[in-house]
Fold these 4 entries.
Entry 1:
Amino acid sequence: MRESIRFASIILFFFLFQFSSSYGQDLPVKKPDLPRRSVGMTNEITLDQVYEALQKEGNEKGLFLDFGNPALQGKIYSGPYPYEEHESDLHDRRYRLHSSLKEGRGLIPIARFFEDKYDANEWVDSSVTQAAVAVRIDLWEKNRDDVHHHGFRDILVYFKREDGRFRLVTTISEGPFVNLLRSDDGDPSGTGVTISWETMQPSGGKVVVKGVDEYAHRADDLRDHQIEITGLRHDTRYKYYVQSGETRSSVYSFKTAPRRGQGNVTIAYTGDSREGVGGGEHTFMGVNRYILRRLADDAYRRGAEIFLFGGDLVNGYTTDVGDFRTQLKAWKQAMEGFAHSRALYPAQGNHESLLNAYGGEDKFVMMDKFPYHQSAEAIFAEEFVLPKNGPSPEDIRRPSYKEEVYAFQYGPVKIIAFNNNYWFTSNHLVNQYGGSPEGYIMPDQLRWIIRQIQQGDQDPSVKAILMFAQEPVFPNGGHVGDAMWYGGNNNIRAYTDHGGRLIPEEDGIIEVRNKLWRAVSRSKKVAAVLTSDEHGYHRTLIDNDTPVGIMDDDTDGDGRLEKVSPNRSFVYPTWHITSGGGGAPYYAQEQAPWSDDVALYSSQFNYTLIRFIDGRMQLDVYNHNGQRIDHLDDLLHGK
């Protein structure tokens, strides 16, 4: 009897293994019968390739770069890093010298920063032998009659000077960054934070929190370092540094989150920092670094404790994983001054697209990159440290929601990040290949969002709720034809492949949008839904008199709304705010059914600053020059 049971168990295990293996290889989309294409390359030379070009051993003048490509030419700009760190709380990359890159090779002239004229960091007086320089490489490539400009690449280089010669040491290539400042982290002994950084070389790592303790990895061969620190006091400032190998970072500080339900807090928000127009730092590795840095620095000076970011961080729409990572790393470089001491919470936008692309003469298809461990969602989650409490996809063949759909509490405010750019396929071809159009929210995520709102309503420690995502729920400029509206076309929806048949979702985009907003409007605590995608700023109070469109407006049954009526099921008026002024090219206002209800529209670069002060949610909006362009005393009351 036991032998027969054992045999049956083996057969069952084999069957389940075979089924799960074949199911795991199955796709929820149809692979196009078209030639595979490479598109959207912003960075043909990635940051990893630049670091690989760094030579370990230098000479008495500095360190060498060698790309192994004689067609590469350029300029190498360098300066001590952090520049005069004892005088600035936001560490700058400032360049003072330049040298040439010829036939793929060049010198970083570190020795000159030990000369009186260039020794701004007083390396000689303080007998420094180990430090760092910031390096910018402006690259172009000559091939016969063609000259191709690759643009800037910025890196940090840590060095040691021994016996008059320079050598490369363990280099902190990114960070350290403060992550997961939250009041509901589940730490019974207090609160915590996660410190992350990357190193060029595999190494061990530790975080030293001054006056508290050291927190070290067990592993000694990591490049991606994340260390969780627990047992800290709420609402308390700490100083810290990280160490990998023989290299220590500068000393930074962070302030822990307040207790749940307590404190006055300041939260910044914007989106759409993908590259702008004008060259230089406006088109920095896929990011408008010039504008983004100014907005982040202004938010820092005005006391923003965390920064929410509503997607379209970068150009994206690329088929190359290395290019996509380089763009995201460029965004983190632009935000590094803020992120050394305060937490970033980004959401995924439509431009955070990592693709499989296919095309022939008559058709061009873009799809979320599969296999999905290389999807836009997966790489986004790897590049950021975010809460992992999002929903699980009902169809396990689809990408994960982890670290892109999430919720957390900061003091008295609950924050819900959702993703209405999940599992993307070209909008007009979704019904042929499967996937989801931009703006659509799958039912599993929508149920999760509704539960999060309800839980916030029932939690007495939550005094207000903020929600944010990329696509506007009620667009006004640049995306009236898509986002969560599509001109009133409810036929827009996601499709899933099941055994060769494409099955549409039951609800179309208008039905999904109205279910979302009905849940929002039933909560007195939702102060605003923050979105981006449209490159400007607008604020609209949505209530049950706002013409938004309902399914009864589809009078001929074709799925398209012939008129636009108010939705009487909306209960409490709630602000819809779009702040997409992070650096992308501007959009002017377009006509939408709710245009007459728009309180303000501006095409300026902008970010919003929301302050919870003694039960009020105060709104201020600033442009990149620090000029205030909008103000509201309270998003919660007096609507």
Note: The radius of gyration is 26 Å.
Entry 2:
Amino acid sequence: MKYYCNPINVNYRYQFNADPRQHGKLKICREAADPSLICFEGRYYLFASMTLGVWVSDDLVTWENHRLPKELPLYDYAPDVRVMNGYVYFCASRREENCDRYRTKDILNGPYEKIEGNFPFWDPNLFIDTDGRVYFYWGCSNAMPIYGVELDPETMLPKREKTALIEGRPFEIGYERVGENNSLFPASEEEVEAKYQAFVKAQGIPEQFLPENVKPLIRGMFTNKPFIEGAWMDKHEGKYYLQYAAPGTQYNTYSDGVYVSEHPLGPFRLAENNPYSYRPGGFLPGAGHGSTMQDTHGNWWHTATMRISKNHDFERRVGLWPAGFDKDGELFCCQSYGDWPHEMTDGPQDPFRGPAFMLLSAGKKVQATSFIPGHEPEKAVEENVQTWWKAGAAGPRECLTLDLGKCYDVHAVQINFADDALDIPCPGQIRPGSQARYIEEADTRTRYLLEGSADGENWKVLVDKRQAETDLSHDFTVFEEGLSLKFLRLKEMELPYGQAPCVSGLRVFGFGDGKAPAVPDFEAVRTGDLDMEVTLKTRTDVLGYNILFGSASDKLYHSVMVFTAGTQRIGALIKGRKYYVRVDAFNENGITEGKAVPLD
């Protein structure tokens, strides 16, 4: 059996970002986002922003990294890739210059034929209809809509004027509101100007010395208007599903919505199931700006951007989830337990099959040889990618030891290495542009030794990557037969640039030998047009809860994972629509489903 666990287990390259708002100070982080996933000649190719390459797989589980030719616009965001007439067409975003296209019949070896562009765009998506006509969608703005236009399939130039298709509606669509947990409505012009002036004053820079292209960026920080971006089109049984991302990549609620039409250029109506890709909770949240495709077995998959956003707003990763269309033609994506291990079978799959193993490590005891205050060892088991243990120094003696409390049947481990405010010289030349940066070209390495023990005295090697040439910052290993372990020990860590080890998640999965939780007690109340509150009663047999909601009791397609009882606010509702809510409880031994109830 094959297994995968989000974020996908690939190399994420470092970016050295010259943010004009940071007075020349570089912001350094790993980044990959805005994924386009295609199947071409029986293999899967995953393109993402700022990776300098493409990930290739035969099974959607094991990925190989290949560099792409330097003549491609690899420093431009949101690469869009589609297959047409035996060619793979590639383009990416450039706001202020005409965007060229490239096509090839051999992704890895080329050559790539350049097709001159005649207009600039951001967040592109090419769509080839079943009748051979070609359409193009683009847009990434908190002020402008997503546009669409028909292209000439020979020249790839527009055949007529563009059409506005999707605009933000944050006063009616809850998941489009910005902020953590969709907490903010757009600000007034007066509020924006006041915050802008206060920010400029605090920086100590006279406004007349600010570059003109920087001023709107600063004002944009305070508008609270959602970014409507990341278009992707699919066709199913004669209907067109135009997908888009909102409200902003730096929020835990970064999600994908969908509009439906009988024509590729609309008019479009908001689908009943929205947002169709949404996961604000769990270890690594976010599921916005991605692509949806079918594998060689006919299964639908959605890949999208997951957010960390601690060292930089664009500190992001890539996730993959099962998707599909229900009996009523509603596009859905199953993201319950969306960053836990799942099985990958060769053939048709049940998108709602549930996780392969249970989470064993959350909140367990953990010790370290040293730590920096604020980055204590227990941060590695908080199930929060934005907090981490940081060793007091770099070197092979640093060690992190997890005590599960008793022996469990351990089947998988995911080790998530973090970066903590790296401050090193840029190893290459910063490239100018709307977002000046340098992408690390050298192949960095992440190395470690993982050991396990049933008694804390006799240890055995579980994973030995002390000589690895790979750089897997979210490394995932499966022990299919299971191991009886109480302790796990992570040691001899070697991270890129000689930094001190940082671990945001030493995550262990398997099975306990006890009982699953009792049926959870909860109350769900609608508190406004766009908001609801779910109150969970404290129970000693529960590790966490999965809150599910949707348009019907058998269409609970949205989920929010939490690890504490009390009241949880969810702000992703749509004005005027009815909902059902269910709460499931889980612990190390299993999952217990609650009862679906209508939302009052």
Note: The radius of gyration is 24 Å.
Entry 3:
Amino acid sequence: MFLSSLDLFVVAAYAVILFAIAQWVSREPKGEHKSTEDYFLAGKSLPWWAIGASLIAANISAEQIIGMSGQGFAVGLAIAAYEWQAALVLIIVAVFFLPIFLKREIYTMPQYLDQRFGHTVKTTMSVYWIFLYTAVNLTTVLWLGALAVNTLTGLPLFTGMAALGAFALAYSMYGGLKAVALTDIIQVVILIMGGLIIAWMTMGIIGQGDGVMAGFKRLYTEIPGKFDMILDKDHPAYSDLPGIWTLLGGLWVLHFSYWGFNQYIIQRALGAKSLQEAQKGLVFAAFLKLLMPVIIVLPGIAAVMLAMPEMGSVIDGNALAEKSDRAYPEVMKLMPSGLKGLIFAALIAAIVSSLASMMNSISTIFTMDVYKSWKSDRTEEHYVKVGRITAFVAIVIAVFLAKPLLGSLESAFQTLQEYTGYIAPGVVAVFLMGMFWRKTTSAAAMAMLIVSIVANVALKFGMADLAFVIRIWLVFLACLAVGFIVSQFSAKANDSNDILLSDISFATTSGFKIMVAIIIAVLVALYVVFW
């Protein structure tokens, strides 16, 4: 047990406060019951600060904190491309995608596909997303979260997963998206505070009494290779982050799939009180993304030096050599009592927030896109109840699947990218062509989804040395080509499926444009400095 009584008190206080606030924001006026809009979209009342905070809380979880920090240890700052490029993608989503989604007043991404391409495409993607969120996303967060809990407390992995899942259910299942989004404000504050503290203190340890900046300078000077954003071809991790192709290739496809068309991310924006609030929320999230490598990747890089004999091997290098995902938990052990509890609470906050977000999205898709299509004559209360039951079932399934699926993997973060990469090119191609090319047909949409999987498998085994990011890019281009060709030879069912853009405004406010300019300037500076 590496947590003191004070640490445990801090974690317990966090849990009690979070649960109390969740129940308070979930309360209903006497005699009233939640509608599906209340439960799944927070009554379309979310302000920008709740949207931005909730986006980050949903995104930053065990696979980022544990997995990405582990990649920081193994690879270095190059893994930050997943964070910094996401900031630019969030801006593009805010400007070009949100106006379309909010104008169509949709609950889910499959609902949009139903409006554009019909029932078959919607059902196919509904089943896929339910499977992905349950068998891949939920299991990854549970497994990595339990791994961190085990390292710090000795709690058995299965018990840790069950406890994390139960806590996420307890505070989110009753209130739905509103409970998740509003409590995420607390989660993000704790997450950023905890992350900044661990980054600050690790730099101080490396500085050996000369200060935090001296520690960062020493880290940068003695292991400069860990601060390269663009890897050389002879780098061991080139197959995952292939140099300049991280800027030009399929990483953008993964970003658009995740930030633009991923239900458990975009659902917060769909619950906004207005388009302007949704757009401000996304640009706020983009600002926060610029911070994430500091609080996630930097501690992983610091672990490289902290494990060196000349530093006195202050952390267990053997444990890190065995599994790089242990980097963040090992660094956490160095924190003093009380602060260790705060950082552990931040980790728990990130984990349970993502679990709650995923469960809410699984329940939304199953209830609104699958169950409601089958039982369309039930009451709003009935659908909300089905949503709650679905969330419970999903987390139970994930708890039992996590160890068999992920227990023997070296890096769960890279494995998650690999799994989602099989369908991501098809998803992005379907949405982009569906939104911006009227001639795209339902047959073309199905063809693109099929090609995405088939081409990925073919290249995975036929060209095993091809970098993952390049493979995703080639498959995406293939999907676009197939979509164009099939659309030329297949008839559209009717013109009512068109998503017309003539009545949609893509204009943004001057304040939004200023914030975008600042974000882009910071991104350019970061890549110039760490190229």
Note: Residues 339-374 form the longest helix (36 residues).
Entry 4:
Amino acid sequence: MLVCVLLGVGAFMGGRSFAETDDFLSPISVVAGVDSKVLYIAEATANQVAVFDIASGKVVKTISVSENPVGLDISADGSKLYVTSAVADGKVQIIDVQEGSVTGSIAVGHTPVAVVKSKNGKALYVCNQFNNNIGVVDLSSKKQVAAIDVVREPVAAALTSDGKILLVVNHLPAGPANGDYVASVISVIDTTSKKLIKNIELPNGSTNVRGISISPDGKNAYVTHVLARYQFPVTYLEKGWINTNAMTIIDVPGRRFVNTVLVDDVDLGAANPYGIACTADGKNILITHGGSYELSVIDREGLHKRLLPAATARSFTSEIHSGGGSKLFDASYSAEDVPNDLTFMAGIRRRIKLKGIGPRGLAVIGTKVYVAEYFTDSIGVVDIEASAQPAVKSIPLGKTKPATFIRKGEVLFNDASLSYQMWNSCTSCHTGDGRASALNWDLLNDGVANPKNIRSMLLSHKTPPAMITGVRENAEVAVRSGIRYIQFAATSERKAQAIDAYLKSLKPIASPYLVNGELSEAAQKGKKLFSEAGCLLCHSQPLYTNMSKYDIGTSTEEDDNKEYDTPTLIEVWRTAPYLHDGRASTIKDVLTKFNKNDWHGRTSELTDKEIEDLAVFVLCL
């Protein structure tokens, strides 16, 4: 018996400089063969799939594939592998396992990062991350025959045992960031009608959602994500006051949220939960932690026993404020308390430190867990039933190569040990290779009670000053200030320079709004309007910013700042919401609803069609 996890890891991939990483393997996803004798491992920057023989503990073959292989699934009979190439011109490649070569390629969407075969083996469901849809591929015609819109950046999916429902993980929240509730959702798709039928909300602050697994009995799905405490000022880090790390439980038949539990301890974070799987017997849930380099082993039966009284308990208000009631478990009096209880998992979860760096996807065969270790080009092996603290191995998948300075910076950017008590890494807030997690944060560099939207780090070193208010002279200063005042830690100048080097290496990726890589007719018209409306005065080429600050009428009474830095518009299609406090859900909102007195471009006299054309052009940058 085996259980494997198919998770969307392309959110981690988009926009890096491949010239600096093509000497590395970067194992990112793993799936077991149906005979449980081999593992197939997607090696993202090596552009290959490794065949790992479990008995000998060695790679016996590598299969060359197209650029950036990320998602994996295997046919029911084990004869074929399906591999996504997570690039703008995305594809699913079909590998004949016996021949060890690619025998077919199917065009899909922009950055396909996860693939799931249908129960009847006739179709594939593909997470086209930057098209915000699920592509349905017909394997007989080898074509994508449908695209089902979801909310934002689908990166992982799981199919129910009857094949009728597909649960889809949306990596980031959608909508404005300045409201009372900002969170990612799980989309529920009816595979028969090929329609989205429901979105299940995750708790407020849920972002950086990564993996999903359905239990063998089909009763529950489990989802990994960061649970950000974005509504609090960033005054200190300990005990989860900035970011906590979580797993959400979903009732699959009822298609509803059950609860969210924290996978941290009171004084030790378990940063960046990533891959997730259940053992075949349903006894355990396994989670890899990309920032703290661990494997969590959770007693599934114990978890649900503990959640059951929480679900039926009366409210905190009626029980506790009336002087009655008792704790369910330490800080939890009711179900509503559980997502804030850092002790809830005590006694039912083990934290196992891995030897490799950068754990991502995982597969389970019996009692052994195999983990793709991205930064050490290795596969981690843990026998979770061997002992309370089992032996942990990390097996190299090839010849070990010394890390470049940029690669060291990438490791540090993802490493929670750089942070006090390992609560978060840089990527907890700047997810998706230094981009943004769609939340506002109240940092202390410009006073209190004035939350600002997270910015992408792409081109930050080329477009000073840094921060929305321009309070930091440049990105170098911002990197060091972030380590000190957000991660509450100190580091060497050399490590800070390595992070700088990594961020400087990031490259923009092509917009999904382009048509065959070119501006559409509407975008061509929008390009002309961009100049006529005065947008070029502030967003000048080649970086689409003049690196100056302006008052555009969006400041609030609570904010002492009236002028804000002009951001680059390159890759702006990826960084919603917009404006300093994330009030604008779309570029169209920026051009209309929040363009007071035409201070943000002369758009008040444009027709609706012209506004649409202008917005499309901006989204093509």
Note: The first helix runs from residue 300 to 312.
